[in-house]
Amino acid sequence: MVEIAYWSGTGNTEAMAQEIAAAAKAAGADVESVLMEDTTPDAVAQHDVILLGCPAMGSEELEDSVVEPFFTAIAPKLSGKKVGLFGSYGWGTGEWIDTWKQRAQDAGAIVFGTAIVNETPDNSEECAALGKAAAAQ
Question: Is there a smaller number of Cβ atoms within 10 Å at the N or the C end of the chain?
Answer without folding.
Answer: N
